[in-house]
Amino acid sequence: MEIELRLYGGLNRYAPDGQTCSVYRVAPSATISDVVTRLGIPDTFYITVLRNGRREELSSRLEPKDILTLLPQIDGG
After folding, report:
1. Is the separation of the CB atoms in 13 and 40 below 8 Å?
2. DSSP state for residue 61 in the 8-state scheme
């Protein structure tokens, strides 16, 4: 199935084919964690995950046409 994948900040270096916004093919039962692993993003890299504009856990299953946005986690305030 296809999802839209968007990567920002320091995650750009993990973008497939250098495209920070692209259509990305995943298995029908894929989770967000599967995508993060496939992209090669290390477990030590803290990220904020949005699926269709809402925060999600890495264990969430993806659906066709989802928009998955991965952002580096930012501290401050």
Report:
1. no
2. B
DSSP 8-state secondary structure symbol assigned to residue 32: H
Q: Domain residue spans in the chain?
A: 2-72
46: amino acid identity, one letter: Y
d(CA 62, CA 72): 20
Rounded to the nearest integer, the mean pLDDT of the chain is 93
CATH of domain 2-72: 3.10.20.30
Q: What is the pTM of this model?
A: 0.91
CA–CA gap between residue 64 and residue 11 (Å, rounded): 23
As a dihedral over the C-alpha atoms of residue 39, residue 14, residue 16, residue 71, rounded to 10 degrees, the angle is 90
Residue 73: what pLDDT?
83
Diameter over CA atoms, the chain: 39
- Residue 13 structure tokens: 């270096």
